[in-house]
Amino acid sequence: MPTPFESAQLNLKLFELRRDPVLRQARDWFLLEFHPQSMADFMAEVSGSHNTWIRMVLGYWEMAASMVTTGAIDPTAFLAAHGEIFGAFSKIQPFLAELRAARGEPGMAEHLEKVVMSAPDAEAILKRRREALRAFYAMRQQKLQAAG
């Protein structure tokens, strides 16, 4: 088990990586603009111009979560520092089983899933995040339409 200091150092490093301009842009799109309602919606985006961003965001969170599942970062410290992981996972969770089957990769996002689902009330958190992100997107779209 890592010491609190070691967990803090790795959490800070993960936060620093999130500040990369391209990853920041990808995360912004993924959280605020990407709202797949079905496996078909997800596959349409993966097949389109946002493929790189989807892979970047999911790859980042899978890598970060693997540091928790392998014991490099304390799980409680990680979840306290990286709440965004719930929003990211909420985008793929409803059809993760379909994604794994379609890609022939049963381990796809397994670390991400383990870390998120280890949180108390994970399902309720995911539902709230999914709804809040969709509501924010709808509000932003209304403002854009009103502005003309």
Question: Could you outline the blueprint of secondary structure elements for this entry?
Answer:
Elements: H1 4-18, H2 21-32, H3 39-46, H4 51-69, H5 75-81, H6 84-92, H7 96-103, H8 110-117, H9 122-147
Indicate the structural class: mainly alpha
Residue fraction in strands: under 5%
Poorly predicted regions: none
**Overall outline:** globular
Report Rg. Answer: 16 Å
Distance between the termini: 55 Å
Tell me the helix content.
over 70%
The count of helical stretches stands at 9
Mean pLDDT: 95
What is the helix/strand order? Answer: HHHHHHHHH
Question: How many strands appear in the DSSP assignment?
Answer: 0
Profile the largest sheet. none
Give the domain tally.
1
Description:
With 148 residues, the chain is mainly α. The chain has one domain. It contains nine helices and no strands. The protein has helices at residues 4-18, 21-32, 39-46, 51-69, 75-81, 84-92, 96-103, 110-117, 122-147. Helix 2 (21-32) packs across helix 4 and helix 6 (84-92) crosses helix 9 (122-147). It is globular, with a radius of gyration of 16 Å. The model has no long low-confidence stretch (mean pLDDT 95).
List keywords for this structure.
76% helix, 148 residues, globular, 9 helices
